[in-house]
Amino acid sequence: MLTSGSLAAAQELLASWIAHDRSKHGHYFNSRVPKMAVYGAFISAPLGHVLISILQKLFAGRKSLKAKILQILVSNFIIAPIQNVVYLTSMALIAGARTFHQIRATIKAGFMPVMKVSWITSPIALGFAQMFLPEQTWVPFFNVVAFVIGTYINAHTKKKRLAALRKKHYGEGRSNSGRPEDYPKRDY
C-alpha cells in the first residue's frame, strides 16, 4: 500500500514537472498529489493485490506455453479492464467530476486509449514476469511498470490540455503553463 501510494503521488508530481503544469502558485505540488497518494494506497494497491493473486491462483502450477498465453489473455481481457475502469473513475473524481454523467464521459473517452496501452505493454510485462521473476515480486514489478506508463500518459495528457489552453487564450506557444490563473489580465 505504501509503495503504490508513493508511486502514485510521485507519478503525478513527475508528470506535472515534465509537462510544466504548475499550480496557480507556481508549484508542481498541487492538490492532486496527495489525492493520488490516497488512490494508490487505498484503491489501486488492494485491487492490484487481489486481482494478481486471483490470476496466480487460477494458473498455479501451470507452466506450459498454453497456460502462459491463457494467463496473458485473462490479464488483458478481464483484469486490465477492471483496473482501467477503476483508474479512470478515480481520475475523474480527483479531477473534479461530481455527477455520474461526468464520470461516464471520462470512462467513455479514456477507456479505449488506456486499453490499447494496456494491450501493448501488459503481454510484455507479464511475459517478462513469467520468465524471470518469482511470483511474490510480481505486484511490485507491475507497480513500477504502471508508474512508468502512467507517468508518460499523465504527462502527455497534461501537455495536450496545456496546449489547448494556450491556443484558446493566446494562440500557439506563448506560455509554459496553461492554467487560466497563470495568464495576465487583458485590458479590453
Short account of what is shown:
The protein is an all-alpha fold and 188 residues long. 76% of the residues lie in helices and 0% in strands. Helix 1 (2-19) crosses helix 2 (32-58), helix 2 (32-58) packs antiparallel against helix 3 and helix 3 runs antiparallel to helix 4.
Structural commentary:
The chain is built from 5 helices and no strands. Helix 1 runs parallel beside helix 5, helix 3 packs antiparallel against helix 4 and helix 4 crosses helix 5.
What is the structural class?
mainly alpha
Proportion of residues in extended strands: under 5%
Count of distinct strands: 0
Tally of DSSP helical segments:
5
> What is the helix content?
over 70%
Regions with little confidence, pLDDT below 50 for 5+ residues: none
Major β-sheet annotation: none
For the residues shown, what is the average pLDDT? 87
Which radius of gyration do the C-alpha atoms yield?
19 Å
Task: Furnish the topology, listing elements before pairings.
Layout: H1 2-19, H2 32-58, H3 65-95, H4 100-132, H5 138-170
